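I'll show a typical protein example:
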Amino acid sequence: MNRYRATVSLKLTHPTRDLSRLCKALGFEPKRIWKRGDEQPVPKGMPLGSKRDSSYCLIELGPTSRKTVARQIEAALERLQPHRTVLRKLSSTGGKATLSVGWFLDEHSGETFSSDLLKSMARLHIALDLHTYLPDAIEPLRSKAISKR
């Protein structure tokens, strides 16, 4: 069993277009969505009058899992492959599709992404964001090692 957990989401952005129709075309329910020009929320309800400068959509592609990150990305790409035309159109009109991976490590770890996996992402015009999270017990050790340099 892997010494980490990971989750994969799809982030869609576009400088001008409303992404709600794209989400419907993909067949996914967005966790978060807004369009350019929507009022930007602020903490504690103090309106600032600022507007969103681009459209955004976040779609969760599954629960947090102990499957390898590569396997979770492969599964996400399999679900997205039938929608390659829609994803390429998003890219060709100035938008961006990104797989966002939250990688929650139990200890120092690593993984290799094959060239085939990376080619599959490139064919769909999908970028990769990889966010690693270390447990609190590892962070003091890392800080000590850095301060000794």
Helices lie at 20-26, 69-80, 84-92, 115-123, 138-147. The beta strands are 4-14, 32-34, 55-60, 96-105, 126-133.
